[in-house]
Specification:
This protein has five helices and four strands, in the order ββαβααβαα. By secondary structure, it is mainly alpha-helical.
Length: 103
Amino acid sequence: MDNDDDVVTPFEITAKTDAGIDYDKLIEKYGCFAITPELITRLEAAIGEKAHRFIRRGIFFCQRDIEQILTAYENKKPFYLYTGRGPSADALHMGHCVPFIFT
């Protein structure tokens, strides 16, 4: 990581400038895609209700496979959601609530 980069890890979030975290730079760095208003509109049309509050409020601001999931859903094809919660800890903690609530 460059010294002029923001720090965003599970343990620390530090912006290097007063402008705050550069989320566009994070999206590019991690190979994700922004959740655009158009994508939210498509999601809402597919499910017939408002998108989850985490998406509407920008808590989840990027994605990798929502288009593929929506295409499968729209074509009535099966798919699954993997939350990323693995068996790496002996117990659940509050941080595990976010993917569980969303999924």
